[in-house]
Amino acid sequence: MERRSNCTPVAENGVLDVKPLRSLAPMFPAPLGFEMVTQSNVPPLVSISPVGFPFAMNVGTAHVATRSGANGSINATPVSASTRMPPSGSFWTAGASILAVDDDEEEEEENPPFEGKNRTLSKRDKKSQAGSSGSDAKRKRLIKSLIKPLPLSLPMPDDPRESVDMILMTFDSLRRRLLQVDEAKDEGGRSQYLKAGSIMASRNVKTNVGKRVGSIPGVEVGDIFYFRFEMNLIGLHSPSMAGIDYLTTSFGDKDEPIAICVVSSGGYENEEDDIDVLIYSGQGGSGKHDQKLERGNLALDRSFHKKNQIRVVRSAKDINCPTGKIYIYDGLYKIESSWTEKNKAGFNMFKYKLLREPGQPDGIAIWKMTQKWKENPSSRGKVILPDISSGAENIPVCLVNDVDDERGPNHFVYITNVKHPHPIDMMKPLQGCMCLSVCLPGDTNCSCANHNGGDLPYNSMGLLVRRKPLIYECCSSCQCTFNCRNRVTRKGIRLHFEVFRTSDRGWGLRSWDPIRAGTFICEYTGEVIDRSKIDDEIEEDEYIFQATYLGEKAMGFNCRPELLEESELSTETEVFRSFPITLSAKNSGNIARFINHSCSPNVFWQPVLYDHGDEGYPHIMFFAMKHIPPMAELTYDYGPGSGSIRNKKCLCGAPNCRGYFG
C-alpha cells in the first residue's frame, strides 16, 4: 500500500576541569576486512559456512572437559546438533515462519527458531510475503544483499572478546537495518531480531559453537543482552525460549543430562532478591499440572548431585527496550539443594537453590546498585559534586572519586552548545521539511529524509541505524514537532552519567544506565578554533578534538557490523568528507571531554548537522558502538600513534592495544 505523504504542499556555569589523556586526531576503528588484525594459527572462534542456499546449517560437534567417572565425576561425550532445513520457499517464507515465537515466553521448546517447527503465519506475515510494487523493490534489493553467500574466509579478531563483540554488533546492526526497512513500509514490529538471527544462524555466523560447562570464551560477567538470540549466537545459552540449557554426558556406563546454563526471565516463580542466591523453578506444567522430572528438570537434578558449574543469566525490567526486559549474565553458580513444592495453582513444581561461586566480578549486583542510585543519587557515596553541570544538563551528572583524595579537576565552564568564532546565524541556513506533526519513514516528500539518502537515520526507538558521512536532523525551520524521530541529538543527554576518577588515566565517564547499541550519548562541546593560526597552542592543548576523517577506512566503523548488509555500498558509493573543524574543551566543554581513549572502544563519533550551519561545521555526536553495561567506562578511539614524542602511551589494556595514540 502506498504511504500517504505527511507533508503540506510546498508554497555558564563554572565547575571543575580534568585532563584525561587526549589525542589530537580521533578516529573510527578500522572496518572488517581492511587489515584490522592478523589471523591466528589456532582454529577461529567464529564459524562461517559459505553456502548457496541461505538456510543450510551445520552446527559443529562440541566436547565438554571431563574427569574420570568412577566417583560421580563428569565424563563428556560429543554433543551434536542435527542439521535441519526449513520448508522450501523464499527467505520471507522461512523468515516469517518464526515470527510467532515470543521471546518473552518460558516454554519447553528447546530448538532455536531456525531449527524449529513450522508455525502459523500471522496476517502481518502473509502481508509481508505478498509484497507490493514500489517500495518493495528496495526491500528485495536489501534482502538479496542480506542472503548472498559469505566469502570462504573472513578475517576475525584473534581475541575471544573481540569475536563476541563482532558477532553481537553484526546482529544488532542487521536488526536495526531490517527495522528501518520495515518501518518505511509501516510494518514495524518485534520480528526483526528473529530475521537478523535467522540470517546469521543459517550461515553459522556465530562464535563458541557447541555446548560446554563453565565460562564461555569472550563473555564477561555483567554483559547485557536484549534478545535471547544474542545469547544463542555467542554460545552462552542455546535454547531460543526454554530457560534451561543442558547437554548429555557419560557417568560411568550411563548417559545423563546436566544443566549448563539457566535464564531467569520472570516466566516462573523464581526468587531473585539475593544477589548471591537464586531460587529457580523447574520448567513445564504451565501452572495447570505437576511438573515432570525430565529434560531440563532432570538435568538440574543431576547437576545438583554432580555439583557442576552452571551459568546464570538474570533479567531485569527495562522500559527502554521493546521487550521491557534486559538480560544480565551473572556468572557461575552451583546447585546447593532441590525440593518440590506447590505453586500458586496448587500443582507440584521443582525448586533449585543456586549459590553464586565466590571471587567473580559483580553482575546483577551492579544493576541493583545503580537502580538505587537513580532513585536516590545521594546514596551513591564518594560524591564530590552532585551535578558537575550545575543544572545545565537534563539529568544531573555526579562527580565521584572512589580511588584517592583528589577533589576534582581544574576549573572549566560547563557548556551544552558549541561556541563558534562568529554568529551562527551568519552561516547558510538549512532547508526545513514541511511534515505535519512528525517525519514519517518512507515519506518521499520529506526533505529531511531526502537529505539522508531517502531514509530517516533513526528508528522508532531513537537508535541510530548506521553511521553515515553526515546526518541531517530536523532544524528549527522544519514544520514537525519536538517529538519527531529525526530530532535526537539536539534534545540533550537522556542517561544518568557520572564523571569518576580512574586509577591511572585521570578522570573518565560512565553511565548508571544500560546503553543499547546505536544510543545517543552526548555531543562534544567546546570552542571552535582556527588551527592554522595557533598550531603551537593546539599542540599543548590536551582537550582538542579535530573532526577530520583519516580516509575511508577510518570512517568505516559500521562496515564491521554491516558485514552481511550492503557492505560494498557502505564503503564505495558514499562520499567521505573531511571536516575542517577543530574544537577545544580546555576552558569550556561538557561531559564528552572526560571520555578516555581505548584501542577497543565502545563509543564512536558521528557528524550531525541541524539548524543553521555550514556543512563543514557539523556537530560531533557520540553514539554507542555496542551494548554497554551500567558502570562500564565509555571510551572512543582517539587515533593511531607512532610512538613519537608528541604521542601518548596507551594504557587502555585492550588485547589489540596499539601501544600509542595521538
Description:
By secondary structure, the protein is an alpha+beta fold. Strands 3, 5, 6, 7, 8, 9, 10 and 11 form an 8-stranded mixed sheet that branches. Strands 12-13-16-17 form a 4-stranded mixed sheet, with no helix packed on it. The protein has helices at 91-96, 123-130, 136-147, 160-184, 192-202, 228-233, 295-306, 364-375, 447-451, 535-539, 552-555, 567-572, and strands at residues 13-16, 46-47, 75-76, 206-207, 224-225, 244-251, 254-264, 277-281, 310-317, 325-342, 348-356, 383-385, 398-400, 411-414, 471-472, 497-501, 507-511, 520-523, 527-528, 544-547, 581-584, 588-589, 596-597, 603-609, 619-624, 635-636, 648-649, 660-661. The longest helix has 25 residues, at 160-184.
Features:
662 residues, alpha+beta, PUA domain-like, Beta-clip-like, 8-stranded mixed β-sheet, 4-stranded mixed β-sheet, 12 helices, 28 strands, 17% helix, 20% strand, globular
Strand content: 15-25%
Main beta-sheet annotation: 8 strands, mixed
CATH domain topology of the largest domain: PUA domain-like
Mean pLDDT: 75
The counted number of beta strands is: 28
The low-confidence runs, each spanning 5 or more residues with pLDDT under 50, are 10-132, 147-154, 550-573
Envelope shape: globular
In helices, the fraction of residues equals 10-25%
